[in-house]
Amino acid sequence: MSVEEQVLHYPIPNDAALDPPAEWERLRSTCPVAHVTLPSGDRATLLTRYEDVKQVLADPRFTRQLTAPDAARLSAEGGLFNNEMSQIIPDGGEEHQRWRRLVVKWFTARRMAAMRPAMTRIAEDLIDDMVKRGAPGDLRADFGFPLPVYVICDMLGVPAADRDRFSYWSDTLLNLTRYKKAETEAAQGEFFQYMSDHVAARRRQLGDDLLSELIAVGGPEDGGLTDLQILVTGMALLVAGHETTANMIGKMVSMLLADRDRWERLLADPSLIRTTVEESLRFDASSGFGLPRYLPEETEVSGTVLPRGTTVVCSMAAANRDESAFEAADQMDLSRSPNPHLAFGAGAHSCLGQALARTELQVVLEVLLRKLPTLELAVPVEELEPVEGLAVGGLRTVPVRW
After folding, report:
1. Which SUPFAM superfamilies does this entry report, sorted A to Z (predicted)?
2. Could you report the per-residue pLDDT of 82-124, keeping only the tens digit for each?
3. Which one-letter DSSP state was computed for residue 313?
4. Three-state DSSP state, 19
5. How far apart are CA 246 and CA 241, in angstroms?
6. What is the pLDDT of residue 82?
């Protein structure tokens, strides 16, 4: 059977938690537009080349909402991309731009710079607590998960004490195979009710947070959002604002500790922190599902005609290892610049919170290098276990000592 006739099961498992699947290189070179079967059993088309992924992600015609009758379902058990909530935030055109303009004000570089001292204090306190408990610690549970949760909760004005509930609700929204349909529907109902109560409370008494500011703008007639759009924006930001960054913190630190020379180089030259964060984002081989896109019209990609109604999965992680876009793509180069990776997507739908994620990751390295220069993995890198069954990639635990 030729490569073109094979139908791979997607996501393709990694050989080891931090390593890319061997198939990526083969697909990029011989079958860049590949047929795959999703966890739901539905068929989709997988893109692995840099130029192809960038082309589709940057094309405003292609939507991230997979609610069309002929769109592929990611999971048979329900989840973020195929449910009705995904339709509430406008997906394109002037309405999407208006939504983005209202929300992006909270994610500017200037605002991130203002938040940085508070982020640093949170990071220092978390490290102090981990050290008090003694080695070995779990960098994911003790540090990587709570840091972005505290930050996004503060931005949304929700209590960080509820973080375990947020984590569970987020996981069910990002479900591929971990939860049954009844579990995901019940959790999403609880999450919706929680955020509905929170928005109602904010409406009664505005605070200094993103949701209060969206409420203060007024409704659509005033250039603002509907109640439902504000509520779903809160849910979406809470999920996106902690889950991906929490996972990335664990992976980034693991990548750097997996080769001691990388960590020592950073210790010797902390000015490399910014480019190291970018290279960690590019080099991340376990970033999860990638971004699905629905093609409402016939499109040509890499010389292949994709019919209307095709669901495409853009693997940014595979594209970020493309030798045609990055010299020595399979090497982690802490000083790589420029680094036009696609970890945050491309075009009008590129990640809204990328300035926040970058700032958090930079603060993580600044604080760890300063407070725990002797940090090391407490298990061989081969024993790190990936997160299973969710649309985001990560490590289950990151055991460390110092």
Report:
1. Cytochrome P450
2. 556 667 887 777 888 889 999 999 999 899 999 999 999 999 9
3. E
4. coil
5. 9
6. 55
* Local structure of residue 335 (DSSP, 8 states): T
Contacts (Cβ under 8 Å, ≥6 apart) of 70: 309
pLDDT value, residue 84? 63
The CA-CA-CA angle for residues 322, 382, 36, to 5°, reads 45
Picking from 97, 103, 99, the residue whose alpha carbon sits closest to that of residue 220 is: 99
Coil, strand or helix at 327: coil
Q: Which residue has the higher pLDDT, 241 or 35?
A: 35
pLDDT value at residue 167: 86
- Separation CA 267–CA 265 (nearest Å): 5
Cα(400)–Cα(138) distance, rounded to whole angstroms? 6
| Tally of structural domains, the chain | 1
CATH of residue 9's domain is 1.10.630.10
| Residue 138 bridge partners (DSSP) | 399
- Residue 399: asked if its preceding bond is cis (omega within 30°), the reply is no
How high does pLDDT run on average in the chain?
Answer: 92
Residue 376 has pLDDT above 90, yes or no: yes
Binning pLDDT at 50, 70 and 90, where does residue 81 land? low
Burial class of residue 298, CB neighbours in 10 A (0-12, 13-18, 19+): exposed
DSSP state of 142: I
pLDDT tens digit string along 164-179? 898 889 888 888 888 8
Query: E strand or H helix at 37, and its extent?
Result: strand 33-37
- C-alpha span between 46 and 293 (Å, rounded): 10
CA geometry: angle 259, 385, 26, nearest 5 deg: 75
Domain that holds residue 247: 3-401
